[in-house]
Amino acid sequence: MTEFWNAWNWNPLVGGFLALVGWRYMDGVWRLWRRAGAGRGVHQWQVAAFWSSVIVLFIALISPIDIWSTTSLSMHMIQHLLLMVLAPSLMVLGLPPIARISMLPMPWRRDFVHWWHRQHFLKQAWKWLTAPFTTWGLYALVLWIWHLPSLYEAAVVNPIVHMIEHSSFFGTALLFWWAIAQHRVLGIFLVFTTAIHSSILGALMTFSDQVWYPLYGSFQDQQLAGLIMWMSGGSVFLVAGLLLLWQWLYEMEKNDAKISI
Q1: How would DSSP label each residue in 43-103?
Q2: For a Cys staple, 49 with which of 38, 94, 229, 254, CB 3.0–4.6 Å?
């Protein structure tokens, strides 16, 4: 039991960041609900989705999973799935536009809006960065590059490289799921193709006859890690794609019903 509690990563920067994000989110939501009524602008299920993402980040970065990931490749793979699939998708669901602007302190909001409207270059850069195929490419690039043996092992032994790896995973995943939320029909294609290429990477890891990461040294652990990426990650993407497809068909049916009336 003592070893379990000693395995927690109580990094004040990580914990402080999660606490700050959670505080600013709820402060904005409470202010909004006091003006408009509970559930207006930001629904209760969106608040639940946001806090679920914070909990997933807590599990991935502070719980013993973070420490165990340095000695177990399969545990490291679970951590990556939490950072690239569950946490960012839930956070995007929990952050509608009004919630994002409400997270800014009240005196900053109007100044930020005015400043942003004057930043033509930044707006164009942001438009390109959040374009569906840009986010798809960045997500795929980051996923495959960080699984190169030299970079993967560097992230295990060097805390700064590890932080860069996790930041790039979560950041590109946020952009990816953001684009899916904005372009739901195209998002079906993006999700299914991502499921394919990430499953290919997992299958290659599973069926390889060589140890990819000698630092871990366990061939069985590598096979399990590959299966986690292949089966678990692919399953989540498949479910997400089917939900998007169902929502698209449902909205088409509703529109057809309105036209027929």
Answers
A1: -HHHHHHHHHHHHHHHHHHTSHHHHHTTT-HHHHHHHHHIIIIIHHHHHHHT--HHHHHHT
A2: 94
The amino acid sitting at 162 is: H
Over residues 105-162, the pLDDT tens digits come to: 777 777 777 777 788 888 888 889 999 999 999 999 999 999 999 999 999 999 899 9
Q: Count the neighbouring beta carbons within 10 Å of the beta carbon of residue 111.
A: 10
Evaluate whether 188 touches 244 at the Cβ level (below 8 Å).
Answer: yes
Exposed e or buried b per residue across 11-49, where buried means at least 16 C-beta atoms within 10 angstroms of its C-beta? eeebeeebeebbeebeebbeebbeeeeeeebbeeebbeb
- Number of residues written out for the chain: 261
Distances (CA, A) of 69 to 17, 86, 88, 211: 21, 18, 20, 17
98, two tokens: 């009004």
d(CA 139, CA 141): 6
Residues 6+ apart with CB under 8 A from 3: none
How far is residue 98's CA from residue 214's CA, in Å, rounded to a whole number? 48
